[in-house]
Amino acid sequence: MKIAVTSQGDTLDSQIDPRFGRAAFILVVDTETLEFEAFDNNENKNAFKGAGIQAAAMINDKEAKVLLTGFCGPNAFKTLEAAGVKVANDQSGRIIDVVQKFKQGNVIFADGANKDSHW
Amino acid sequence: MIISVASGKGGTGKTTVSTNLARSIDQKVQVFDCDVEEPDSHLFLNPVIEKKESVIAPVPEIDLEKCSFCKKCMNICRFGAIAVLKKDVLCFENLCHSCGGCFEVCPENAVMEKERSLGEVEHGSSNGISFIHGRLDISQVMVPPIIKKIRSYTNPDIVTIIDAPPGTSCPVIAAMNKADFILLVTEPTPFGLHDLKLAVETVRILGIPHGLVINRAGLGNDDVKIYSEKENLPILMEIPFDKKIAKIYSKGQMVVEQLPEYKEKFQNLFNKISQLVEKGRQEK
Question: How high is the ipTM of this complex?
């Protein structure tokens, strides 16, 4: 299964980036093989508006079914929900540890945004 | 003649100057409160509102039967307001600036125009002053279309006084553009001066004759005066930092009605503006 994780760097040893839409990188990880692709999120990071929405569309594009992140706003959550991507907020630490935690079934999926939208 | 009253910094006295100027001149006048995020001229003019109309703008709605999910609409959207998913397309109305790009680029004709309300415009009158102001809807951010709607009611045969929003961004440009004169209201504080400089730079790009009112004169320091001298910026009026004026303002009353000696001062201000406008026309 492919899952997306927001990351401060482009390796599994990197720390989670707490921001979703404006994360430095988004890693799409295969939970079976731990193979991953790191996507530079620079364009969204500097977006004027709608960063979360565009990052959510990207995750849908890469066919990830789960997102592990720190904070997810309402527009991003709505887009992820429409794309059928489950979201676990409030994650922190190394990417690899969070992925293991997910594999062990130790993350709680959100039923809404945990952050207000930006203006 | 269109006089736009602007400032840079907020809270310097744009509304005080606009409303008292309108009340003082012996000519037919219309007041447009274009600070549609927080209009307040009505608090002083107390107009009787006779008509309301809503301001609408198009937003996209996607016909999923026609859509080929090519993402052209998503990619052209500068505001990230469209998300093209595998089998669905989401449009976020509140982020949309109604630029029309998505309608243009869609190869399938799948982007339909839906209307949304941005705000409303109210028309009224107050003791002979014709009054119009706008009010932005809660959660909306697109201000210029409302200002343009207000300004579409400009009567070229009478004096129009525009109470502009603070700042120097798009709403301010919409409230200053094509005015005959821009009256900048500042206060003699470092913050007032900082934002005045930005406002002056903006006005110079627009190429419109302009002058300065110093409100709360006596407060702060002389830096605004030094700046205006250096920049050849005429100081047309000074309103002193006076507790009497603050009290009148706080009760929603007009300075020119409570302190009649100010009527002449505002008439003088209007005369100076008229002369500068005339001078500007001759120079062209």
Answer: 0.86
List CB contacts (< 8 A) between B81 and chain A: 49-50, 53
* CATH code for position A56: 3.30.420.130
Instruction: Inform me whether the C-beta atom of residue A60 falls under 8 Å from chain B C-beta atoms.
Output: yes
Domain boundaries B64-109, corresponding CATH code: 3.30.70.20
Boundaries of domain holding A28:
2-103
Degrees to nearest 5, angle at CA B52 with B49 and B54: 155
Q: What percent of chain B has pLDDT over 70?
A: 100
pLDDT in tens, B21-62: 999 999 999 999 999 999 999 999 999 999 999 999 999 999
Model pTM score:
0.80
Best residue of B90, B95, B98, B141 to probe chain A, by most A CBs closer than 10 Å? B90
Contact B234, B183 (CB under 8 A): no
Measured between CA atoms, how close is B10 to chain A, in angstroms? 19
- Measured between CB atoms, does A57 come within 8 Å of chain B? yes
Query: Count of domains in chain A?
Result: 1
Strands, E assignment, B92-173: 111-126, 129-136, 159-163
Residue A118 has pLDDT above 70, yes or no: no
Question: DSSP string spanning B198-230?
Answer: HHHHHHHHHT--EEEEEEEETBS-SHHHHHHHH
Whether B149 and B176 have beta carbons less than 8 Å apart is answered as no
Fold classification of B2-55+118-283 (topology level) = Rossmann fold (3.40.50)
Chain B contact set for A60 (CB, 8 A): 83, 85-86
pLDDT in tens, A16-60: 999 999 999 999 999 999 999 999 998 888 887 889 999 999 999
pLDDT beneath 50: ranges in chain B = none
